[in-house]
Amino acid sequence: MPAAERRVPWNSAITEVETDSLRTHGVDQRDLIRDYSYEETVYFLLLGRRPTSRERDLLRAVLVAHASHGITGQSTLAVIGAADCRSGFLHALIAGFSVGSGVYHQGGLPATMMLLQKLARLSEAELAAYVDERLRIGERIMGFGHRFHARDPRVEALMDFVREHGFEGPHTRVALRLEEILRERKGISMNIEAAGGSILLDLGFDPAIGHLFIVLGRSTMFAAVYLERLAQGRPPFPRIEIMDVLEDEG
């Protein structure tokens, strides 16, 4: 005989919907619309409280930093390719995030956040030993190094912002210390994922939703590139030349 069924109603502590009434974490949606900035709403929805002005400003800075991205990144190329095929923007957006989701591109943010969580628990000696071992076996340390920048300009702005706001926490501290070690050993600097990821961790965000901040930051840039490509008046499905540029190992 089958086990007796027990029906459990769905419920959420996040949102309440009643006739002519919407509340998020107990706050009327009309008050959110009137009084909360976008980054305050993101913080409030995910962490359950309105951020301080310092927390709000740091989250805004991370989101803005992730809006910038060149046209040669594989994710942006996917958006351009979708525009060339006259795919609708939703398909172009999905293509950009799907292609870029690998750990060496847009997936680098959650991967770096998870690494920084682990490394923040190490002693100074253990941290240096970790770096030395990764370098010895030729393994990349997530969040460090960049194919174009010797010093990622977004990192400089974000870390200056952290210092100005007196917000240096365990994850920004370990990211800065890692950069010191790597610059001394190999001349490698922090990139946007270590800078943004360390701030997000110190703000209290879970690496499990690290991709969210890529989506929030980069969506509008993808929209701008999509519209720009259409405005260039190229014929649909244009012929293009493709080549890989490889580093000379000699």
CATH topology of the domain at 102-217: Cytochrome p450-Terp, domain 2
Element-by-element helix/strand order:
EEEHHHHHHHHHHH
**Main β-sheet, in a few words?**
3 strands, antiparallel
Going by helix content, strand content and strand pairing, the class is mainly alpha
CATH superfamily of the domain at 102-217: Cytochrome P450-Terp, domain 2
Poorly predicted regions: none
* Beta-strand content estimate: under 5%
DSSP helix fraction: 55-70%
Q: Could you walk me through the main structural features you see in this protein, from its secondary elements to its overall organization?
A:
- The chain is mainly α and 250 residues long.
- Among the domains are: 37 residues, no CATH class; 116 residues, Cytochrome p450-Terp, domain 2 (Orthogonal Bundle).
- 56% of the residues lie in helices and 4% in strands.
- It has eleven helices and three strands; from the N terminus they run E-E-E-H-H-H-H-H-H-H-H-H-H-H.
- Strands 1-2-3 form a three-stranded antiparallel β-sheet.
- Strand 2 and strand 3 form a beta hairpin.
Helix and strand topology:
Blueprint: E1 15-18, E2 21-24, E3 27-28, H1 29-35, H2 38-47, H3 53-65, H4 74-84, H5 89-99, H6 108-119, H7 124-136, H8 153-164, H9 170-186, H10 192-203, H11 210-231
Antiparallel strand pairs: 1-2, 2-3
Labels describing this entry:
mainly alpha; 250 residues; three-stranded antiparallel sheet; single chain
